[in-house]
Specification:
By secondary structure, the chain is of the alpha+beta class. The protein has a single domain, classed as Trna Endonuclease, Chain: A, domain 1 (3-Layer(aba) Sandwich). It is 29% helix and 32% strand. It is built from three helices and five strands, in the order αβββααββ. The chain has a five-stranded mixed sheet with strand order 1-2-3-4-5, with helices on both faces. β2 (50-56) and β3 form a beta hairpin.
Length: 129
């Protein structure tokens, strides 16, 4: 990363850390048989939502995946960091994505938590209700 004088600082940004966590989650899900449909899906305009990974499971279920990375596991860890507002934005983005499809497949919302203790995959971590 460049500092104000244009020199390399060597610091890792939160974006880089997040991208690495997404890469790790993607590789893990692919080893479990899921196929990538789209990465970093964003709704247009301000105030919309984003989905880190959209995957298709072996039973054709469309899986909207939120990847959470935490360097510490106190305060409930990565899974507990997903607030109600964050869930609403993910659900909004999922609905926006589904509007583009001819028919709506079965869907679920998963979370992959990358923490110091390792990676945890929470299937059906929350629902759209």
């Amino acid at each position: 990363m460049d500092n104000l004088k244009g020199k390399k600082t060597g610091r890792v940004t939160t974006k880089q850390t997040g991208d690495e966590a997404e890469d790790l989650a993607l590789r893990h899900l692919q080893t479990q048989g899921l196929q990538l449909v789209q990465r970093n899906y964003r709704t247009p305009g301000r105030g919309g939502g984003e989905i880190d990974l959209i995957m298709r499971d072996t039973d054709s279920t469309l899986v909207f995946v939120e990847v959470r990375q935490r360097s510490r596991s106190d305060h409930g860890g990565a899974l507990a960091s997903i607030t109600g507002a964050k869930k609403r934005r993910i659900i909004f983005a999922a609905r926006h994505f589904l509007m583009r499809l001819a028919h709506e497949p079965p869907c679920r919302f998963d979370v992959v938590a990358c923490e110091p203790e390792g990676l945890q995959w929470f299937r059906a971590a929350f629902d759209a209700a």
